[in-house]
Amino acid sequence: MPRPQKCRCICSRPKVKGFTPVGHESGETVIIGYDEYEAVRLLDYVKLTQEQCAKKMNISRPTVTRIYEEVRQKIADAMVNGKEIRIEGGDVIVCEAMKPECVNEVHCCHRQK
Description:
The protein is an alpha/beta fold. The chain has a single domain (24-108), classed as Orthogonal Bundle (Arc Repressor Mutant, subunit A), CATH 1.10.10. 36% of the residues lie in helices and 14% in strands. The chain has helices at residues 34-45, 50-57, 61-81; strands at 8-10, 18-19, 29-32, 84-87, 92-94. The chain has a three-stranded mixed β-sheet. The protein has a two-stranded parallel sheet with strand order 1-5. Helix 1 packs across helix 3 and helix 2 crosses helix 3. The longest helix has 21 residues, at 61-81. It is globular and about 45 Å long. Keywords: DNA-binding. Belongs to the UPF0251 family.
């Protein structure tokens, strides 16, 4: 029996809920979970290391690597095949307020409210 999935911590739900291709719509949709979105946000936008990302999301570094590889494949599939991207769902805990360790974080989602 597999080990139960650990709940992932995300800063906040994204304001943008998806993207639609222009020019070649396949009619198909790729679903990206909130945890996958958060991994891309932290690794590619905020430029954290995988270890820092893992700590923020309260998961292991190998789990971050797996999540990141899966979401990159989904994004590539959507871009190459003209699929819509929707961002929704997942077993996550949403940070409701700025944490003390985020006080000096420029990219904390709670600064943009």
